[in-house]
Amino acid sequence: MADQKYSKSSKTSKESGKQSRSTAVPFLKIERWLSAHSVHLAYWIIGIGILGALLLFNARILETDDGLYIEGGYHYAKDFFGYYFTSSAALYVMFLALPIALFGINLLIVKGFSVIFYAVGLYFLYRGFRGRVSGIVFFPAFAVTAFNSVILAYASLTFTESFFMMLQSIFFFVFLRHLDKETVESENIRSNISGWLSVGVSLLALSLTRNIAVSAVAVVCFYFIYQGKFKNAAAVTGAYAVCWGIVEALKKILWGDIIVSQYGGQGKMMLLKNPYDPNSGQETLAGFVDRFFVNSQTFLSSRFLEILGFRSENSEPNVLLTCVVAGAILFGAVRMIKNKEKSLLVMVLYALGVSMATFIALATSWGQPRYIMIFTPFFIMTILYGIHDLIKKNNTPLLKMFYVVVTIGLLGVNVVTTMLAAENNLPILQKNLQGDTFNGYPDEWANYLRLSQWCADSLGANTFVACRKPSVSFIYGRGKKFQGIYNVPSTNPDTLLQQLRSAGVTHIILDNIAGTVYRYMKTIEEKYPGSFVPVNQMGQNQSAAYLFIINYKKVP
To answer: Distance (Å, rounded) from C-alpha 56 to C-alpha 114?
Structure first.
């Protein structure tokens, strides 16, 4: 435990005299206090974090994925073994089936589960790293993670982030405890099969929640290979393979021929130069290299610093800031290597390895904070560790003051940012809880959702409506199925019309959220005028949403 480890350091320092004490353990009095109050402080931080998640609670649907998972959970709840989620990894969607089966599509309850995942994730983050790093390094990183406005905002969204961060923390809790037992290469692997299998299960859970997390297996193998423990690398690979094989066999038994590879759809999209335009062709090797560097700048210099509150939203990438952030992380990692901090090294290798894989896989237009947000506690801990270790080697007042300013600055900015976000969110949340469902949406979003709801209430059961955000329309349409138009796959109007006809589409919603549906309809209308007949409209001017019926009689 941290308390035992650093208490021992304190006693040694005391016996060696005041000067050696300050050199061995910087901020000794604070370290002792943190050691004595570690558990209570952690619970207080988690409790305040939960309060923050409730104050920033979002009772609305923000993006396609936010609704896509709920729609998938609804289908699992209705027919668990007759449906399989194919858009991405399915584990999180299966979990959503539970509250939906019990309470229906109740956004407050479904989103409440994300808050639970957030809290459990914090608990295991504390349990996993307690005793493995100085309290004055861990607790600032832990508190920033708990109080961060972006993480708290995602704590009530039905994206995978809160669920994944929980599984991520559980993985480190399981793996680091197992690592304590597997300390020498000569140890008989077979004597701790249960430990290796638990590591395999935790890694599998990550990859079943987020496709890119399969790279964590490679990271763990590299970690053991770096130490020359080749048997351990083989053991973790074997454990993961066994767990994966069992799950794949169960999927085949339970779902039969309806299952497809969770990597298929996203893998094909990743290979496209433009994921919204299949005609753009596939990415080249040089394109992937360019994608990595562009995304590195976007996420390190912009999104990561935005999450921490040091840059405004959607800030422009900056090469210098990218170098500063990357340098600070790498500096901490190097200090961990030099100090043989094995448990912390696997943490930073994981964060760097999976984030680098993310930078390669993501199209440069997908630079959302959530893709880097999940590594926030690890990057902060690594940066603070580097500075703290530098103080241990060069215990000067200036360095200690710098550390104090950095930690207080991090905490202060995050607390203030969260309080301001809560102040802005509470009036909207209050109205949402009072039944004003569309309050807080931009006008174009609200009109689109109202029209989706109107389709469910006013159109017959034999109608099928195409739109830009089918999963979101599904939720506000009270379970009515919608057909998605995500891109314009062809410039041939006959091909586009045939696509609609084959799907049985009778109506189409034209929105002002994106230009995809407009371009789709325009391609058809230019060749076959009058193909789309107005039926209804919600809103006015630029924020309006329109419903058309497709007049197939106009088409030869």
So the answer is: 13
Identify how many contiguous H helices and E strands the chain contains and give both numbers: 25, 5
pLDDT at 274: 65
The model's pTM = 0.87
542-555: per-residue pLDDT in tens? 899 999 999 988 77
Helix H, strand E, coil C: the string for 29-57 is HHHHHHHHCHHHHHHHHHHHHHHHHHHCC
Amino acid at 362: L
Report if residue 1 sits inside a domain. Answer: no
Spatial CA neighbour of 326 closest among 383, 406, 403: 383
Residue 148 has pLDDT above 70, yes or no: yes
Same-domain check for residues 243 and 375: no
The answer to whether the beta carbons of residues 239 and 200 sit under 8 Å apart is: yes
Whether residue 5 lies inside any domain: the answer is: no
Q: Could you tell me if 77 and 164 lie in one domain?
A: yes
Q: Which residue has the higher pLDDT, 274 or 343?
A: 343
* 42: number of Cβ within 10 Å: 21
Under DSSP, is residue 104 helix (H, G, I), strand (E, B) or coil? coil
**Closest to 382 in 3D by CA, of 322, 326, 329:** 329
DSSP structure class, residue 548: E
Cβ of 55: how many Cβ atoms within 10 Å? 16
Does 293 share its domain with 251? no
Q: Which of 139, 203, 215, 141 minimizes the C-alpha distance to 175? A: 203
Q: Which of 57, 87, 63, 61 is nearest to 75 (CA)?
A: 87
Report the C-alpha gap between 369 and 502 in whole angstroms: 38
Contacts of 3 (CB under 8 A, 6+ apart): 35, 36, 38, 131
E-only strand ranges, 171-315: none
Sheet with 507-510: list strands edge to edge: 482-484, 465-467, 507-510, 545-550, 532-538
Q: What is the pLDDT of residue 342?
A: 85
In the structure encoding, which two tokens stand for residue 481, read together? 């199925």
Query: CA-CA distances (angstroms) from residue 117 to 158, 176, 433?
Result: 11, 21, 22
When divided into structural domains, the chain yields a total of 4
Q: Which residues are registered as beta bridge partners of 435?
A: none
Using one digit for the tens of pLDDT, what is the confidence trace for 199-222? 999 999 999 999 899 999 999 999
Cβ neighbourhood burial of 181 (10 Å; 0-12, 13-18, 19+): exposed
What mean pLDDT do residues 511-529 have?
A: 88
Give the pLDDT band (50/70/90) at residue 158. confident
- 497 and 511 assigned to the same domain: yes
pLDDT greater than 90 at residue 325: yes
pLDDT at 426 over 90: yes
Beta bridge partners of 484: 467
Indicate if 319 and 252 belong to the same structural domain: no
Q: Are residues 167 and 79 part of one domain?
A: yes
Same domain, 193 and 256: yes
Same domain, 359 and 469: no
User: Mean pLDDT for the chain?
Assistant: 88
Look up the domain containing 454 and give its range.
Answer: 443-554
